[in-house]
């Protein structure tokens, strides 16, 4: 932990070269209390996403806006640096928005199973469909991180527990619907774009987890496909 704090401190006080390194390695929120004056490699893209003047040069106002975005979504170090992790989250948001109301346009989630919950790992989206009819979604989800990937394939919901608490991580998993070993749909309190991801479950907002609970039942199909960015 001391090592991580030292890396964060270097990112705050020394050179521009260290900022991308700490962004990749991670740092504690406490170590990222100030704004950086350094221009990031994705400065223009991040400025455009945030509605800032697109000049490719870091300003105090740019940093404040970037830092607020990072803080909201749990991106560390939250020092306002326009690096690969921050732009990766924004880019994913843009791709998710572009899907609109046709998440199964590529036809990869089966339409011959009746009601089925689909999870597109590549776009970090999930939805419920009945045949070709969209029932709910698409909604952003947070799936397994590198090394704890959400497993792909056709599965079935085999157990539901509205007030589940993880026996492994000792954390609440409200509206849990298990479909593959310990992997389940459930509510999570973090941003759906919070890197690096879950321990394998499909995290959802409370609103979406409650809706999935009301729409799905034991025995319903779940289809997971694609590959989460960064895994």
From TrEMBL:
Keywords: Cell shape, Cell wall biogenesis/degradation, Peptidoglycan synthesis, Signal, Transferase. The keyword Lyase does not apply. SUPFAM superfamilies: L,D-transpeptidase catalytic domain-like (SSF141523), PGBD-like (SSF47090). Its EC number is 2.-.-.-. InterPro entries: LD-transpeptidase (IPR050979), LD_TPept_cat_dom (IPR005490), PGBD-like_sf (IPR036365), TAT_signal (IPR006311), Transpep_catalytic_dom (IPR038063). Residues 114-225 form the L,D-TPase catalytic domain. The keyword Signal applies. This is L,D-transpeptidase. It is an enzyme of class 2 (transferase). Residues 1-32 form the signal peptide. It comes from the Bacteria. Pathway: Cell wall biogenesis; peptidoglycan biosynthesis. The active site is at residues 186, 201. Pfam families: YkuD. GO terms for molecular function: transferase activity.
